[in-house]
Amino acid sequence: MRKLRSAVFAVVLIGLTNVVPIRATPAAVDWPMVSQNISNALKSGNDGLRQSAMQRIIQYEGLLDASDMVFDLLSIFRDNEDVRMRQMALIALYKTRDPWAMKFLKRRLAFEDSPRFRYLITAILIDTGELPRPISMSANS
Predict the structure, then answer these.
(1) 66 and 98 in contact (C-beta within 8 Å)?
(2) Cα–Cα distances in Å, from 127 out to 9, 18, 110, 132?
(3) Average pLDDT value for residue range 16-33
(4) Is the pLDDT confidence value at 10 over 50?
(5) How many Å apart are CA 137 and CA 135, to the nearest integer?
């Protein structure tokens, strides 16, 4: 059973890493199917598979339908104990540009204990227009 699980994991992982063949154009890819597969990977209990799915969300920003992924990404960001997984989930959330997720992050900012995550969330919210640019940044732009 363990070998079967490992084989299935390897096939899914290879499928996630080879989403776009080298010579394929983005228009030739079935993006709704890719989006569904990535969404399914985020729902899995395997952190490695979820990490690969988040990498694909970041890599294929704008090409995926992320509407089914937002709640899973928020769950990983809120509940995962691994700081690196939380950080990747936060970046993947940013790449989805989902308005609801950005409003969630704006509310979350007041309760975030980690200075690292406060800084990242603030930068994301400034970039997406949820927070105004600081005067010091506006003068340099």
Answers:
(1) yes
(2) 36, 30, 18, 9
(3) 65
(4) no
(5) 5
Rounded to whole angstroms, what are the CA distances from 76 to 7, 49, 138?
25, 13, 33
Residues in the chain: 141
The DSSP code for 109 is G
Q: What confidence tens digit (pLDDT) does each residue in 89-107 have?
A: 999 999 999 999 999 999 9
**Dist. CA 87–CA 83, nearest whole Å:** 6
| Alpha-carbon gap, residue 90 to 114, rounded angstroms | 13
Tally of CB atoms within 10 A around 68: 15
Angle at 47 between CA 41 and CA 51, to 5 degrees: 65
Report the pLDDT value the prediction gives residue 135, as an integer from 0 to 100.
79
Do 81 and 47 contact (CB within 8 A), yes or no?
no
- Cβ 93 vs Cβ 105: under 8 Å: yes
Tokens at 77, concatenated = 């960001």
